[in-house]
Amino acid sequence: MPALFVAGAGTEIGKTYVTAALTRRLIADGRAVRTLKPLASGVPPFDDPAFADSDTARLLAAQGIMPTPEAVAACSPWRYAAPLAPDQAAALEGRALDLADLVAWCRAQMARAEGTVLIEGVGGLMSPVTPEATGLDWLKALGIPALLVSGSYLGAISHALTAHETLRLHGVPLRAVAVSESPGAPASLDTVAAAIGRHCAAPVFCFPDGSACPDGLAALVP
After folding, report:
1. Global pTM?
2. Residue (of 190, 117, 154) closest to 10 by Cα position
């Protein structure tokens, strides 16, 4: 079951941008891919015009899938309106999510997929996904390798290396690091990526604003 988990060193740093770009590249290369964001916060209702800018809508568009209610549910079955950590957003709606259910759903999608499955996480690596579990717990339970996404903002190097070390200590295979350009960052994208690369065994790739997926990254996807 070839699969890759797209984890973030933080939130709002370009995770969905990188995931969508990677999805488009794999499809352009003739590969079968299914991209999922099982858990999403800050998602407007389907009939709200703002839904078109949601992470789920962007990932469906990258796959060439029309955003019907059925397609949305198949990509992101757990969606919450508040732009908060999923456990907090769920609580506001009187809902709850169990990690076992989330993992079981992901495994079922992986088992029935005909090609590679990309699973985009939510928030940063250590963001809570349930009252008891974090994104790291989710990733470890799935037992699949990770692609770590970082920004290039001030402090991004430390955040990326902290996430990298966390993955290493927990035995999670890291395929690559993708550094997404942050608006107004004081250092260049190449400078930030090079600094991360000096302390990281995995390949590091740059994603300038508006760029396509680098050739080398697509080749690392199982």
Report:
1. 0.96
2. 154
